[in-house]
Amino acid sequence: MNNQVSVAFATTKLKADFEALKDGKSEEKTLHKDLCQTLDALRLDCGLGIRVPKRIWPKFYKKHYLITNLWKCNLPSGWRVIYTIKIDEEKTICMILEWLTHKEYNRRFGYHDS
What we know:
The protein is built from 4 helices and 5 strands; from the N terminus they run βααβαβββα. The longest helix has 19 residues, at 26-44. Helix content is 38%, strand content 26%. It has a single domain, classed as YaeB-like fold (2-Layer Sandwich). The chain starts with a strand and ends in a 6-residue tail after the last helix. A hairpin with a 3-residue loop joins strand 4 and strand 5 (91-100).
C-alpha cells in the first residue's frame, strides 16, 4: 500500500482507556508498552496481524462497527488486539476496536475454555 497508514481508536472511550494504562499499575503499564509497540508496527504494516475469517466474526463487531474486514494481533501474555482496516484514496487507517485477554477473546469469539 502506497498511502499513509495511521492508527486510530474506534471510540473516544477506548482512546482514553489506552491513555490511562500508562499511569496504571505495573501490569497496565506493561500492557500500554505492548500496545504501543503493536500500534507502531501496524503503522508500518497494517496487514501484520492475522486476518479473521468472516464466518467467525462476532456479531458485536458487525453491529457496532459495520466492519468489512477483521484482524487480530497477539500480544505478550495472551492479550489480543482486534482491529479493522479502512482504506480510501489518501490513507489507510488501522481502526483499533478493542484489546482483550485470551479468556475475553475466547468468550467474544465463541470459543470455549477447556
